[in-house]
Amino acid sequence: MSTAPAGRRQLTVTANERLGAYTVLRAADPDAPAPAPGQFAMLAAVERWGGGEDERPYLPRAFSVARFAAGEAHYLLEDVGPGTRRLCELRPGERMWALGPLGRGFALGAREPGRRPLLVGGGVGIAPLVILRDALTGSRQGGGGDRGGGPPVTVLLGFRDAARAEGAALLPGALIATDDGSVGHHGHVTELLAAELERDRRAAVCACGPAPMLEAVRALCQRARVPAQLALEAGMACGFGACYGCVVPTRGGGYLRVCVDGPVVDAELLDRVDEHAGAPA
Questions:
Q1: What percent of the chain has pLDDT over 70?
Q2: What is the pTM of this model?
Q3: Which end of the chain has a smaller Cβ tally under 10 Å, C or N?
Q4: For 108-269, CATH number?
Q5: Which residues pair with 162 in a beta bridge?
Q6: pLDDT of 32-54, one tens digit each?
């Protein structure tokens, strides 16, 4: 697993692209080690990173790396508050702070032989599935072709509406569900997952999304006896295990820190996915 250089570093934004309700923010990051799929970075704008009359600084925000190629990191953002709004405002040439890659990603080598990769994402939680499919297919540009010689990769994505479903362009060929029925299947992405597992249970599931979706994925996979890895999220102040602000309970007692023991964890470690845990922003 890649580890971050000591201390945060300044990156220069190279592109800011709208993708429906989302923003794809790209930044030159030539000094970073290549992140593993599922790892994240703590991001903050260098300038105007604060709010209120005294411009009290915001905490950095944790974002999964959506893609990393040729020394450039890609992040998928949604404007859900003042901190994410400021990041979404960044334009080419502006700077941001980054600390990462951090955390534990998807264990690609842990998949049982003969099981097909089944990727399940919800909303902005599709981000780590982009770099994951790149790794599984041997493609850096997400073309969807399986050049790795293994089982084909199936991708299931769920969104609230058509504007957010435009994010599926990062994972062409995916099956899509929307809550309002505006694109693809009318309903939840876990309904697509249930159908896939009914058709063929020889799968290994990797999922990232909001807590209710991840809990449904966990329960479905447990009943079907299908291995699953879940990318969790909890409020993070540091990103490297010092503040204990992101702990989640584990099966049989005890806790794990999402930032260092995750964000990707084996579903068997959890009795359930709590409401405060979901996709890394």
A1: 90
A2: 0.91
A3: N
A4: 3.40.50.80
A5: none
A6: 899 999 999 999 999 999 987 77
